[in-house]
Amino acid sequence: MDLSAISATLLVASLMVAATPILLAALGELIVEKAGVLNLGVEGMMITGAICGFATAVETGNPVLGFAAAALGGAMLSLVFGVLTQIFLSNQVATGLALTLFGLGLSSLLGQGYVGIKPPSTARLDLGPLSDLPFVGRVVFGHDWVVYLSLFLVVATWYFLRRTRAGLKLRAVGESHHAAHALGLKVRAVRLCAIAFGGAMAGLGGAYLSLVRVPQWTEGMTAGAGWIALAIVVFSSWRPGGVLLGAYLFGGVTVLQLNLQAAGVALPVEYLSMSPYLITIAVLVVMSARGSKRSLGAPADLGKQFHATH
Q: Where in the cell is it found (predicted)?
């Protein structure tokens, strides 16, 4: 075992890359749940975004168009969930699970012709002398634009929820949709917009996996990232800052276990590979012991159907 082979600089830089797809998906799901909707289809939307983004980037040679297509694909799939749950009032849990299964099957079908193809690269931003600084240059100023976009979106999400009228309306719908409806808010419209945003974010996260982190198309390549994103929303107590912390914690453990494998740690590879998921489960169990859903900070009407009354 040679731990000296592990570079702290590359470890932290890789952590940010590994955390970005989960961070994007979790921020989207945070907005969805703040509106009182529980969408368990994050995994399906991520894998759909992964293949939509990959295929578009390969066909056009432009990764930016790939990310745009991924966001559109994720949003369109999420609106299927939105129409079923908000218009036809289907069960949110069952519909979300069906969305995941549908997304996995659809992506497998669409991705058959893209196995083994390398997509156009997403270049790191050139920040001049800042990128050449020791440690900080590689860790902070050595990433692609999507990493910085994800960090900006953390701040933007916090600001939207806490400092804007639209954010207040969204939270009001999530806390009590009947009271919000009585005040004249269009509950279904607000929730559908939140669901579409959540789908677009999940699609972006999926595209980051297939265009940057891997980068290639592999069937089922999300490998549970959507479920981790759902868990991180709970871990964060429905706060954007907590989502950032949770995503980076999971990303850090993921990268660390890969580095430990490379360093020859005397543990079975299977144990190291499952460690990020085990730690996530352990954190959720500890947090759940704190008390009820309300004490964790969940919206009061989370997962409840809205029946308009006249």
A: Cell membrane
